[in-house]
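note to self: dont lose this again. the chain is below, predicted strucutre after it. 241 aa total, dont forget to put it in the shared folder this time
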Amino acid sequence: MKRAIKYLIINGLWSIVIICLYSTPATAQTAESTHYLDSIRHELTIQWPKSRTVNLVFHGHSVPAGYGDRHEVNTLQSYPNLMLKKLKEKYPYAVINVIVTAIGGENSIKGQTRFENDVLVHKPDVLFIDYALNDRFSDLAKVKDAWEKMIKAALDKNIKVILLTPSPDQRIEINDAANPLEPYIAMIKSLAGEYKVGLADPNAKFKEVAAQGKLKEVMASVNHPNEAGHMIIVQELLPYF
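---
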């Protein structure tokens, strides 16, 4: 009888552990786009002389930096500045600084090492992190550690954070579930849920474009979007504003 009870207790505990392991990701929720930036949206409506400058900082690799084809940097056609244009249409009285701390070819591991000196120094109101396209060449555990350190450092200073899934690389079959970006996309979504920060998922939209056979129409080069591609990213960010 005692053995039977012991067996039931042990198995019952294992059942609880298994349920917790599989239910935690499902219950973790990212920040709601409709409310996450309520305080920032309010700041953007305040008129002079009570207004202040709102800093939007975009940290990442060549895509937010605006690289196109043949190493050209199309700053005004990149999503940070296209985002600024859209925000100014909605908030005509706001003073908005778009600050790009992105470096072409960089991954999050390197980006994290300069995070304090190059990013936090700008006192972001909102921080956007976009590194997954380059992160796929690095160890997933090290990449996750770098993202977590940046998220935690920002949240410790009450900075709002929005994580981005990657734009395409045409050398990768984007709609193949086994493509090398998928584990990094899953990691980003998991971190957004764990830390209750914002998540923009342009990768899902690019997959829809690819399924229609129109991916080349939104790309400036093999791994950089053109203006239309950058606008896909903008459309995923605008709901927060």
